[in-house]
Design a protein that fits this description.
Elements: E1 3-7, E2 15-19, E3 23-28, H1 34-49, E4 55-56, H2 63-66, H3 71-74, H4 77-81, E5 87-93, E6 96-104, E7 113-122, E8 127-134, E9 137-143, H5 154-211, H6 230-234, H7 255-267, E10 272-273, H8 274-281, H9 285-294, E11 306-307, H10 309-318, H11 320-328, H12 332-373, E12 383-384, E13 387-389, H13 400-415, H14 417-420, H15 428-442, E14 445-449, E15 460-461, H16 468-478, H17 486-497, E16 503-509, E17 513-520, E18 523-526, H18 532-553, E19 565-570, H19 578-595, E20 598-602, H20 606-616, E21 623-629, E22 633-637, H21 655-671
Parallel strand pairs: 3-20, 3-21, 14-19, 19-20
Antiparallel strand pairs: 1-2, 1-5, 4-7, 5-6, 6-7, 7-8, 8-9, 9-12, 9-13, 10-11, 15-17, 16-17, 17-18, 21-22
Length: 672
Amino acid sequence: MENIKISNFRKIKETWDLDLAPITFLTGTNNSGKSTILKSLLLLEDHINSDNHFELDFNGEKARKHKVDCFDNAINRLNKAHNNKDLFFQYSNRGYDVRFWFQPGEDKTNGKGKLVKLELEREDKAKLAIYNIGGLNYQLEFDDTLIGRRIESKDDEARSKDKDLVKTIQNLLYNDEKKLGELENNVEELEKKIKNKKKETVEEESKREKNQNCIACNGSGEVIKEKGTILGRMQTVLPCNNCDGTGKKNDKNTPESTISKNEDSNNVPPTIRFNKVLRELNVSIDRAVEFLNSKGLEIEKKPTTKINEITYNILAEEFQTDANKLIASTNPEAIILYYEKELKRFNQKIISLKQEITESKKKLRIANKKLEENIPTEKSVIIYRPSFSLEDFHPSERTIERIIKRVLPEYLRSNDKSIKLAGAGGGSAQAFRLGERINSALHFSVDHLSPHRNNQTRLYINNNTSTDINELIKQHSNNPINKKSKAGVFLKNWMRKFDIGDNYDIKSIDGVASKILVYEDNDWVNMVDKGFGAGQIFAIILKVALCIDSTRKSSSFRYSNKRQQLIVVEEPEANLHPALQSKLADLFMAAYSEFGIRFIIETHSEYVIRQSQFLNLEHPKLFGLYYFDKNEGPYAMIYMENGKFDRPFGTGFFNVADDLAVNMYKANLKSK
């Protein structure tokens, strides 16, 4: 259920329209109408589960919970004074908007309401309506889309495929154009880097030639310790007047002598230990030797083996990812080379991507043209209008599903030529399917937990229905939860989180009573010894676990994949410490996230709502909140991305603690 709309019921004078989130909080001032929403849901569920959908009976299974005893007491008292006695309910369920209109029944003694009109509207605007045309006579009206008469032709199927193709091409084109933009930005950045680096290199070279400094001694004649990477240490030095180019001081301090020494150094390149190369290139010795052997280079497989610059460059070329990083961090020429390689690679990708984009645009034009050529002609909608009388149906058989399945086949055989030709059985299948779908759309399940869910007692009498825990014990006795199942694990896990215990046991005593035991500190104790708050929260956790278990075991309707659960809880924070109150929001979120169970929570707990704000930061659209004002009615409080609400709460909620602190401060000032 995603929405509920109510008019002229109890506190509701006009119309209240509430969109329901997976977890919806109702809060606000007392006597402002929060319970009116809950009562309407319980009354509607009773009506849907009854055998007669044409009268609103207030004595159903949930009568003890909604406590609305007759139609006269269901109407808003201010409207009743002006003789406005029409009740309206609407809810969204399984892709349908379901609407009911009721008026007081003709028999004033039973306090029931009479169905004036029922309307179901599907998301595609297909409708079914049943409305009273006088006395016990009703008209059923719906269009042919609801019984599947408009079967898609081959042209429709082909058009659907063409639409999918256009969408696929558009998505590919969007992604390719996005990648192209990123690549072009990368190329632009690389071109700037290359230009700047070349400029820096020219300036440094000019400065170096001017100062006649060498790498080995920095022009000082004193040996400088080797720095940088392997390749940096292996590059040829510039002529120096103070050393021989390797850091060794030059005895013959002449340019000719220095040049001669450098020429010898170039003929015999410097060497480096193999293990240092392996470490800097991040490659194993086995892999490196195997690769060099494949290139026809024999090398001794020892870490202490020394290699020259040629061998190093071969290894660096093979293991270029790390090598490029190494070069780029030390050598200007290598940086430029690396940038140019990347630039070439990006440009190749751009060329390839532009070709793909051109081809995709061509395919998109063809697909769009084909789609335009196959625009279907508008098909006429057939409206069916069979009528019926409730006199032909026993009061216990007056459900919408039974009406459709009985009335529709004969009508279709008489009014639809294609069905008429099918013989006596024609129309039955269509009527059966429609009845099932409408029944599924009408039905929803509401499990209600009151503020007083548990009693402080050691024994729970089985036939006592005064509290929720008695009903929960009965449900558990009829369908025990397997403690190793998902429901059992969920229950025990949240028992621990709320400090109830590690395990539980519901024991039957001679079939007339039950007791709840909790396992804690290696001992079984009665739930009553844990305190009233423990029993209150245990009832909530047990109800959630029973819903999980029932969803797993069965489905109520043929046309629903699984039973859709809605749990309504009044004041779940009752008798709980504030730290545990905040955990309630986590409990509800876990039940929905893991098992799809939805909640409507009536609460006055600031801690529950504050925690929901925090959880909403990581789980947006999971929570909804309505603040009920006694004069204005309910209004939505929207959760913002920053965790705050879009508008302030009404007075008397978040501001109370601050107001009390101010009053205390003022009182202390006066006493001084």
